[in-house]
């Protein structure tokens, strides 16, 4: 009788531990399912709050070390900030502050020049050369001319960079990464 009671008590104990472990595992899976992704506007607000304002010069959603994050570039006065924000939690992953240099000033002056072709027109032109989803755009100066650099994720999981002349809207080059 004592042996049966001991066996039964052991079975109940082991079963209870197993059920507890399963419940804990099941709960951790469901909590990852319910994680929300913050919107780009929220990421901008978080970054601007960290830098006490400034001008956002670039924002993109990227995956770095397996973490999906917003990479936000901000200029304020003579400083540049890079703020990386976890897209799931909204927490700041990385924060860098640098002084502007001469190249940055040239780029800033370039940004003040109005291109003849709008960004929307340049994107439409780029998407004719490489079909997909635009993930980043930049206005740069190459060989003394304004150029839109448009990065596109293609349907076959490659990345295309299309350079569009900001003066006349012509495609300058198309580079596709393997």
From TrEMBL:
Domain PepSY: start-end pairs: 38-94, 117-175
One Pfam short name: PepSY
Alphabetical keyword list: Signal
Protein name, UniProt field: Peptidase propeptide and YPEB domain protein
Organism of provenance: Priestia megaterium Q3
Gene3D superfamilies the record matches: 3.10.450.40
InterPro entries recorded: PepSY
Biased segments, Acidic residues type: 95-107
């Amino acid at each position: 009788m004592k042996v049966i009671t001991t066996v039964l008590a052991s079975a109940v104990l082991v079963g209870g531990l197993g059920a507890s472990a399963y419940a804990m595992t099941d709960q951790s899976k469901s909590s990852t399912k319910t994680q929300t992704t913050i919107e780009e506007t929220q990421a901008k607000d978080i970054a601007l709050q960290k830098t006490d304002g400034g001008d956002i010069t670039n924002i993109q959603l990227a995956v770095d070390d397996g973490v999906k994050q917003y990479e936000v570039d901000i200029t304020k006065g003579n400083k540049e900030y890079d703020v990386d924000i976890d897209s799931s939690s909204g927490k700041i992953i990385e924060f860098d502050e640098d002084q502007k240099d001469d190249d940055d000033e040239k780029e800033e002056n370039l940004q003040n020049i109005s291109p003849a072709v709008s960004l929307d027109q340049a994107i439409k032109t780029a998407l004719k050369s490489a079909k997909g989803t635009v993930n980043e755009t930049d206005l740069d100066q190459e060989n003394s001319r304004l150029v839109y650099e448009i990065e596109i994720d293609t349907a076959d999981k490659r990345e295309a960079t299309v350079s569009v002349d900001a003066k006349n809207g012509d495609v300058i080059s198309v580079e596709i990464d393997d």
